[in-house]
Amino acid sequence: MNIPNASTAPAAGEYAGDEVSAIVLDPGYTTVRAGFAGEDVPKSVCPSFYGQTASGPYLFGENAIHAPVGGLDIKNYWGSDGIVEDWDTAAKLWEYAITSRLTGARPSDPARNGLNEGNDANGNGEAMDVDMDALEQNEKPLEDNPLLVTEPGWNSAKAREKYIEIAMEDWGTPAFFLQKTGVLAAFAAGKSSGIIIDVGASHTSVTPVLDGMVLRKGVQKSPLAGNFVSDQIRTSFKQSSPEIPLTPHYMIKSKTPVDAGTPAQAVYKTFPDPPTPSFRANEEERVLTEFKESVVEVWPGPGRFTTPTNEELAKSMPGRPFEMPDGWNQVFGMERFRVAEGLFDASAALPSDTFPTPPKPDHTIPRLVQAAVQQVDADQRPLLLSNIVVTGGSTLLYKFNERLNYEINAIYPSTRNKLIAPGSVVERKYAAWIGGSILASLGSFHQLWISRKEYEEHGAGIVEKRCR
Amino acid sequence: MASGRDVRDMLGLPAAGGDAPKAAGAAGTAAQAQQKRPKPAGGSRKIQGVAREVAALYGERPPPVAVYEEKKAYRAKRQSTGPAKKWIQQPFTNPARADGLVLKHWRRKPTTAPPVQESEDAPMEEGDNTETFLESCADYAKYDIKVDMPGFTDEEYDKYLRSDDWSREETDYLFEVVRDYSYRWAVIWDRYGFEPQRQLAPENANGDDQALAAMPFAPSKKRTLEDLKARFYDISAKLMKQRIPEVNMDADQYSTYEMLTKFDPVMERNRKMLATALINRTMDEVKEEEFLLTELQRINMAANRLDAEREELRARLDAPPQNQQVSAGLQAFTSSQALHALFQQLFQQDRSKKRATGGGSVPGRLSLSANDMVHTPGSAQQQLSAANRRQSLAQNQQPAAQTPVRSLSPHQEHRFNVSTHERLTSGVTFGSDRLLKMRQAKSNVQTGKISQMLAALGVADVVPIPTSKVGEVFEQLVAKVSRLLDVRKVREKEEGECKVLLAMKERRNGSGGGEERQAKSEVPDSQETPDIDVDGENEEDEDDVNKNYGDDAEGEADDNDNDNDADNPEDDAEGEEDEGGFNVEDPDDDGDVDAEGEDESSKQQSRATSQGVTTAQGHKRSASVFSQGSAQSSKRARQ
């Protein structure tokens, strides 16, 4: 009787898995996810924000960017259109995400680590030089690991080529593949066809996927996503009277409890070399994230939040308390519905001058879904509508799915619409990575990798031909 | 000493030599004695508090059945045989790849080398092994699937596949895309973007416009999915026909070919438009449809129920069941073989019959074929019955043919009072008894009414000379009388209802308190007032009826006269005339009541049952939404 245990290999046809220790990299606006294919969570989750001092090097990782150091600018390499803008930094940051937790730093080669000084003296420097050329290759961080990278559905051809160039040239990966986040999120949900609604930090995207292929005409994106909600919260704080103060954690030395609504009584830290505004903004964002997680609620329907009856109803609902880092606290009533309503109803968004683009009606999530479905062949629409995969961190807003369900059923009352939203937070936030992990660990995926040889033969253009 | 033995006992080791001498040391005999003793001692140990018979069961014998629960089997203990197995990152190639990409996956290290060598210089050995051995892992090569695509040569293209709408380049591009996306048409359409300039651009980058203008086809036409499909299927079909001529295609191929040729882009487009419209329905439309569907379902259910009820009713009315045997027999004669057998049988019978009746007169050729061949093809039924009754018929026919039957004209029949009967009841009855029986109805009241009516018509209690003719006419008369009584009863009821309804209507219309009160006071009265009215009507009615029956009575009298004369054939006509008069008069009488008039049309049915049917219909109709004009009946049903 052969009972599988830790020491026996899994049966051959058990799950068609055949791991080749591939690495999956899923860069997003707030975090970069990286990990080995075949695992169920990314081992390395690293913020996409990086610190840069005026003179010094780039600082990557949680520890670096949250330390209140003077003159530290916090930046992000993503562009406003959801495509990587700062490629140099992006490559560095991704490399950091991979090497810091997954592959580890490569041991420096013996010729230069100072341990073999004596050899040179022996006079066979010629041979060492040859070796060094060979070893030069070895220094690249991903020499042993095939790499699967995710990209947004609207990525440009140029950006795609950039990905493979970085992977092949800079990192020396033996094999590479590029896949769209939408497809991978569908895979993570166990679907090969469906509509993927991905509400991230910087962008909301709706991607129709058929048999594992993105229907390009249907891909929709809008800037109404997590950052938009944050901006709405800021605006709401400013508009309320008296203005709600937003003080990040790093400024507080100590605080004393105060009554709701009364000004905070806290002792603030003083910095000889005060941190930059960008640092403060990033730290404020963390407070807002907490606020979004614990207070903000999406009006679950039926109907929009801004109808008088619904507003009355919302008023009668119990509020949710929130305490700022400095001790200021308040119970939030219907404001908490208001700040997220803009995702579904552009006219309900609070007017804000800080958000780069004012919300358009076409940018709301229901309209995006509608536009995406419109671009798909009529025969496939019911199939897609019965597999609506919801993913992205911002979909974790309380009652988001209820509202989405209501809106979609209002648009398409005659089809069987089904939302697939994994309950666990990790699966919701890292769906694209998990899908990549599944894909790259399949035995049948071996033939899809773009090998180094193919890259050298056809150039970066091969990515357009192979990864579609 | 003892503890050591216990331990051995527990471990199931033989309590033998090895230990004992060490432990016991000195006295060999004592040790031996001790070794021998424990076993029987253990076996015959006295168990306290148990009956001797039960104790005897505690033997050394094994239990008769080995009890082994599979469910309780624990996981096999990990076998630790030797040191841990080594795993290596085995490089391998996938035969589905042309470029020979080498990937590594974890595999058990093949244990070829003897363990001694391994322990000596493991790292070197491993290094060598991985370098040399390159596995070819074909487990997943089967997933490398290429689609089948029709291909064509330039010649074929020029000859058969030219199209005004499609350039050669675009056709090639279409085929390429179809291959790339493996016939996933939705994806193909999504990605399809043929740009004629793409090929030409390098050649004349500056004179783009002119080049485009010179091109024989429109640049980057917007193709619909149906266009793409139509073109591809068209080419596929043509190529298929070229490769395999239509006549040589097998069923599968031909069905494919047919499918390809029958593709109609226009129809397909319309279908998609309909599908789109279906998806884009509004909530209201969807709800309406749902409502209609549930209604339809309900109606269907009601119809089914009604059918079942009707079926049951028919069964109760004792419709003669289909003669199973006959139909089964018919089935048996459908095949030519069976018919042939039947023919043989008949032939035999015929021959024997002919022989019995002195077949000498008839030559060899028998009448059978002439007789039966006529019957055989068309009237199987007839033939069958003939077959069934052949024997008796054959015998009966002959004497029937021999005895002369004089056929009488109807007039003569009448004159000699000859009557033919379907079947005769045995025994003798008096004609007056029959007449008397006809006067009896089921209920005494009805009987009384009938006799009253007959008295009014002037028919005597005892009809003198009750000939069969008189009996017939009397029977008709009684039938009419009872029918009339039924009609009257129904009418009374209807009118009563009308009164009540009218009263209610008045009460509803009259909003004033006084009137209401009056209406209220009327309502209890309504029990009475309609009665009075109905009575009046009835009287009138009866007058009419009396008039009618006056005629009838005259007819009757005529009849009697005729009977007495016993030669007048007109009496039948007279009677019918009466009947006609009755029919015509009746609607006139009841014309003022609508429902009655409606019912009157179905006069043939008995009154009571027809009433029942109408109300039943009313129920059914009220269930259905679509049926109209049932307002009245449904109102009645609600009442």
UniProtKB/TrEMBL annotation, chain A:
<dbReference type="InterPro" id="IPR004000">
    <property type="entry name" value="Actin"/>
</dbReference>
<comment type="similarity">
    <text>Belongs to the actin family.</text>
</comment>
<dbReference type="Pfam" id="PF00022">
    <property type="entry name" value="Actin"/>
</dbReference>
<feature type="compositionally biased region" description="Low complexity">
    <location>
        <begin position="113"/>
        <end position="127"/>
    </location>
</feature>
<dbReference type="InterPro" id="IPR043129">
    <property type="entry name" value="ATPase_NBD"/>
</dbReference>
<dbReference type="InterPro" id="IPR004001">
    <property type="entry name" value="Actin_CS"/>
</dbReference>
<protein>
    <submittedName>
        <fullName>Actin-like protein-like protein 6A</fullName>
    </submittedName>
</protein>
<feature type="region of interest" description="Disordered">
    <location>
        <begin position="105"/>
        <end position="127"/>
    </location>
</feature>
Automatic annotation (TrEMBL), chain B:
<keyword id="KW-0156">Chromatin regulator</keyword>
<feature type="compositionally biased region" description="Polar residues">
    <location>
        <begin position="624"/>
        <end position="639"/>
    </location>
</feature>
<keyword id="KW-0539">Nucleus</keyword>
<feature type="region of interest" description="Disordered">
    <location>
        <begin position="110"/>
        <end position="129"/>
    </location>
</feature>
<feature type="compositionally biased region" description="Acidic residues">
    <location>
        <begin position="551"/>
        <end position="599"/>
    </location>
</feature>
<dbReference type="InterPro" id="IPR027109">
    <property type="entry name" value="Swc4/Dmap1"/>
</dbReference>
<dbReference type="GO" id="GO:0003714">
    <property type="term" value="F:transcription corepressor activity"/>
</dbReference>
<feature type="region of interest" description="Disordered">
    <location>
        <begin position="505"/>
        <end position="639"/>
    </location>
</feature>
<dbReference type="GO" id="GO:0006338">
    <property type="term" value="P:chromatin remodeling"/>
</dbReference>
<feature type="compositionally biased region" description="Acidic residues">
    <location>
        <begin position="528"/>
        <end position="544"/>
    </location>
</feature>
<feature type="compositionally biased region" description="Basic and acidic residues">
    <location>
        <begin position="505"/>
        <end position="523"/>
    </location>
</feature>
<dbReference type="Pfam" id="PF16282">
    <property type="entry name" value="SANT_DAMP1_like"/>
</dbReference>
<feature type="compositionally biased region" description="Polar residues">
    <location>
        <begin position="603"/>
        <end position="617"/>
    </location>
</feature>
<dbReference type="GO" id="GO:0000122">
    <property type="term" value="P:negative regulation of transcription by RNA polymerase II"/>
</dbReference>
<dbReference type="GO" id="GO:0006281">
    <property type="term" value="P:DNA repair"/>
</dbReference>
<keyword id="KW-0805">Transcription regulation</keyword>
<dbReference type="GO" id="GO:0000812">
    <property type="term" value="C:Swr1 complex"/>
</dbReference>
<dbReference type="GO" id="GO:0035267">
    <property type="term" value="C:NuA4 histone acetyltransferase complex"/>
</dbReference>
<comment type="similarity">
    <text>Belongs to the SWC4 family.</text>
</comment>
<protein>
    <recommendedName>
        <fullName>SWR1-complex protein 4</fullName>
    </recommendedName>
</protein>
<feature type="compositionally biased region" description="Low complexity">
    <location>
        <begin position="16"/>
        <end position="35"/>
    </location>
</feature>
<feature type="compositionally biased region" description="Acidic residues">
    <location>
        <begin position="118"/>
        <end position="129"/>
    </location>
</feature>
